[in-house]
């Protein structure tokens, strides 16, 4: 599956409607972004069960600001609507494959339990 382009209007529904979504935040003028693009595209072809999406931070400045994207490229991964990975910098192919595998292998019940525990801790500290 080729990569898809996301906008502020489409990102929420895409994350909600798919089990795993990887999002590459990039800009045309960004050299590392240009070098990462073919790595991201190749991985999208190897994992048809994962949505590989791109957000042009120049065209979607408000969305990038809302998600606190401060450097590009930044890769975010969502599983079952939950953000589970975020890293700035162009990843080499083998590292991207490790990220995809790790996201696929996550125990989402455990992830949700940790999120609930974390939120509970913050609620008692407030």
Automatic annotation (TrEMBL):
Molecular function terms from GO: protein-disulfide reductase activity
Alphabetized UniProt keyword annotations: Disulfide bond, Electron transport, Redox-active center, Transport
Pfam families recorded: Thioredoxin
Domain Thioredoxin: residue ranges: 1-105
An example Gene Ontology CC term for this record: cytosol
InterPro entries recorded: Thioredoxin, Thioredoxin-like_sf, Thioredoxin_CS, Thioredoxin_domain
Family in the record: Belongs to the thioredoxin family.
Protein name: Thioredoxin
Lineage per the UniProt record: Bacteria, Bacillati, Actinomycetota, Actinomycetes, Micrococcales
């Amino acid at each position: 599956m080729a990569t898809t382009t996301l906008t502020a209007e489409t990102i929420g529904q895409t994350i909600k409607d798919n089990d795993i979504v990887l999002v590459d935040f990039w800009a045309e003028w960004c050299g590392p972004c240009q070098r990462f693009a073919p790595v991201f595209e190749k991985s999208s072809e190897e994992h048809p069960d994962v949505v590989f999406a791109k957000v042009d931070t120049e065209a979607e400045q408000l969305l990038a600001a809302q998600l606190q994207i401060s450097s590009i490229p930044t890769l975010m991964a969502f599983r079952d609507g939950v953000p589970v990975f975020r890293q700035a910098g162009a990843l080499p192919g083998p590292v991207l494959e490790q990220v995809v595998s790790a996201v696929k292998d996550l125990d989402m019940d455990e992830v949700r339990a940790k999120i609930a525990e974390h939120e509970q801790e913050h609620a008692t500290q407030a």
